[in-house]
Amino acid sequence: MTPATSTNANAVADRPKIGLVSAIIFVISAVIGTGVFKKVVPMSAELGSPTLVLAAWLLAGLVSLAGTLSNAEVASMLASDGGEYAYFRTIYNRFFAFLFGWTNFAVVRTSSIASIAYVFAQSVNSLIPLPATPASLANISLLGLHPLDNLSVKLLAIVLVWSLTLFNIRGLRTGEAISRFLVVVLVVVMLLFMFTAFFSSAGSVDHLKPVETGLSGNALASALALACLSAFWSYEGWSNLGYIGGEIEKPSRNLPLALAVGTLIIMALYLLMNVAYLYVMPVGDLAALTQKPNSIAAIEVAGTMAGRVGALVISGLLLVSTFNCCSSSLLMSSRLFYAMAKDGMFFNRVNHLHPTFNTPSRSLRLQGAWTTLLVVSGSFDALTDMLIFASFIFYGATTVGVFLLRRRMPDAPRPYKVIGYPVVPGLFLLFCAYLIVNTLINRPYEAGIGLLLMATGVPFYFYWSKRKIEGRG
């Protein structure tokens, strides 16, 4: 072993660990971002009934919980840096694992971070108007994109990405401390919002009564599936915790427990928040907000309850949630790309831990650079439409792994076994299949582009595989 290799191995061994409570906090902070504050609007327009909207949130939560519990069994057996990348390498092969990692780098994780950072900047702009971009600059087109449009908002989003990148380079404990404080603030303000809503004179139980929509049979199932796509964006991110599996104390126990507990807490908060929205504003009024592109449901509801003060409080809450979610996503996702580089299936220089902080600093910087390009391009909104489609392909693959590992490794230690096996993972797989097929039929453009972006990694795979073989020679 060379001195450099020995130093890196010691650095990995000395990396700080986090406990169960911190792991749960990371799950919550990686998930609660923007969706719970705004997705009730497109869901109301899609379904037209408060009971159906709440049913979609509950269904999406139960499906996410089933996926979480299935993921947790695999995680309890194979916990390691890189999350599903490490799982897929064992369950399937290096090629499928690489496709997962590449898709997260090219689309899923980076476009999600770009979108969250952009909403943070928009929220600041709603409180303190930023300089407008002159039309002469905003109209400049490059490959069909307008990189200088809304420039001040984009620049603030980029500042956020790089500030948090530098924070997270300084260590896992730094990122965990930020998340712990902000999650407490976030949950307390959400609970105060619900309390205020349920005692508001603007609210009415009549707003929660079923509305006749004319939807039934296949039309109802399709509308629910499309509405669930919006809800799933709000639940997206729970699997991020697996990326730091190697930095969790007793990962075979704490990782699955944190996933399950964190998801249950998020489900409860989401359902109560949406009951509060629909209690204060009729479903038709929420659906009408689709005609106001920059409106956010939570801010509109707060304004109805408490005027300008209420709207300002929720705008502040959005700043907290997007800041926190962006920080956690940056921290955890960078471990995936570091794991790929350590395996020889990513850029060589990314296989590096900071000599002082023992963090994957180059992975964090590369992630920040690609996210910056997505922010400037303005293409992340289109990319996030493909995010759920791509994510559920891999969520389904992890759940298939539960069945495969039970057959291939029946006697292997399983600190956690999925509750309700084989029904729970089986139902989750059926839903994944339905959602993927439904998206292919109803949104073929987004699905096709998502598959194309996944395929862009194939040339890189063959290049890095060849380099890996030659390195052995």
From TrEMBL:
It is found in: Membrane. It comes from the Bacteria. It is a multi-pass membrane protein. The keyword Metal-binding does not apply. The chain crosses the membrane at residues 18-37, 49-69, 95-120, 151-169, 181-203, 255-280, 309-332, 386-406, 418-441, 447-464. One of its GO terms (molecular function) is L-amino acid transmembrane transporter activity. GO terms for cellular component: membrane. Keywords: Membrane, Transmembrane, Transmembrane helix. The keyword Membrane applies. This is Amino acid permease. It comes from Fibrella rubiginis.
